[in-house]
Amino acid sequence: MQMIDLFGMFKHWDAGEAAELKHVVIPLLGRFKGETGENYHLLCIVDSTPRGLQPRKWIGRLLEIHRELGITNGHFFRDTNGLRLRAHHFEPRFFDRLEMVKMSRPQLLSSVDNIKDEFGVSRSFRRGAT
Which of 5, 37, 40, 49 sits most deeply, having the most CB atoms within 10 A of its CB? Predict the structure, then answer.
């Protein structure tokens, strides 16, 4: 998610809204495994999920904030200096949410002793999800 390109988000936003099946195009810009140079990878996600999650709504709100601030290119998730946020910036809130899940639905994470060790983003989300 740190590789989301703001310019690409603005560029592709209306296409997802106008499509017969509404969706959000997430443009990832950067270097990916096995490739040389920076490339765009377009990831399409649903407008809303059957469970009621609304990615388009929330992504749209963040786009509007960027637009109001006059920021139309660069990193989608950025610090106050415009630098790309690293994964570790998201860890505290992520861990808090997982702790809440563990307390409210212990059966979901019963085998997890230490949330930070098991799900730390430095270990990659793919490994943590496994």
Answer: 5
Q: What is the pTM of this model?
A: 0.70
- How many C-beta atoms lie closer than 10 Å to residue 62's C-beta? 14
- CA–CA separation, 116 and 120 (whole Å): 5
Written in H, E and C, the secondary structure of the chain is CCCEEHHHHHHHHHHHHHCCCCEEEEEEEECCCCCCCCEEEEEEEECCCCCCCCHHHHHHHHHHHHHHCCCCCCECCECCCCCECCHHHCHHHHHHHHHHHHHHCHHHCCCCCCHHHHHCHHHCHHHHHC
